[in-house]
Amino acid sequence: MIGAPQPRTILIDQARAMEVAIEDAMPHTTHRWCKWHVLKKAKECLGPLLGKGSEFKQEFNKMVHHMVSEKEFEDGLACMVQKHGLQNNVFLTQIYETRMKWAKPYFMDVFCAKMTSTQRSESANHLLKGYVPPGSLMHLFVRQYEKMQFDRDSEESYQEKRTKLGGVVLAQNLPIEIHA
After folding, report:
1. pLDDT for 29-66, tens place per residue?
2. Average of per-residue pLDDT across 88-105
3. CA quadruple 113, 115, 149, 131: dihedral positive or negative?
C-alpha cells in the first residue's frame, strides 16, 4: 500500500483503535462510522423504545435516514429527546457528540458513492463464519471457502432451473409483463 493512492473515504465500525490507526496511516482520508453499526448499537441500548410501531422508533428513523441539514438534524434530535424525556440517556448523548462521524447531514461534503454502511462486507463475513471455524489453518480456510462457493453456485443453478421449468407467471397478462 506504500505509494498507492489513499482512499478519499473509509467506513469503519466504532472501534477506537481502528480510528486511531487510520488517522495515523491515512491522514488525508476521511473516515466515517458505518450507520449499520450505529443502528445495531441503538437497538442494544434503546431496546423497548424502538419497539414495533412505536412513535419514538418512527421519529428516530426519520432523524437517522431523512434529515438533510445539520440544523434540522440537531433540532430534530433535541425535540425527540425532550419529548420522550431522554435528556439523561447515555447512548443518545454519545451519538449526539459523535454525530459528525455517522449522521447523514455531516456526510454532505464527503464522497461515499452513496455508501453509509459496511453491511455488505459484514454479511459476507457472517456467511463465511458459517463455513470456516475461528483459528482455522490456511489450507482448511481455502477448502471451506471453495465449499461455500460450490454451495452458493449450486443454489443459484437450482433457482435458475426452477424458474425456467416453472415458466413465467403473469399477474395481469399485460404486454408490459410479457415484455419484461
Report:
1. 877 877 777 888 888 888 888 888 889 888 988 888 88
2. 88
3. positive
For residue 30, which of 12, 53, 52 has the smallest C-alpha distance?
A: 12
Whether 132 contacts 144, CB under 8 Å: yes
Place of cell 419497539: 51
Length of the chain: 180
C-alpha cell at 176: 408490459
Is 41 within 8 Å of 91 (Cβ atoms)?
yes
> Are the C-beta atoms of residues 43 and 61 closer than 8 Å to each other?
no
Task: Work out the end-to-end distance of the chain between its first and last CA atoms, rounded to an integer number of angstroms.
Answer: 45
E strand segments, 25-111: 30-33
Distance CA 36, CA 117 (A): 5
Half-sphere exposure (CA, 13 Å, Cβ side) for 73?
A: 20
Give CA–CA dist 56/102, Å, rounded. 20
Domain ranges of the chain: 9-107, 133-179
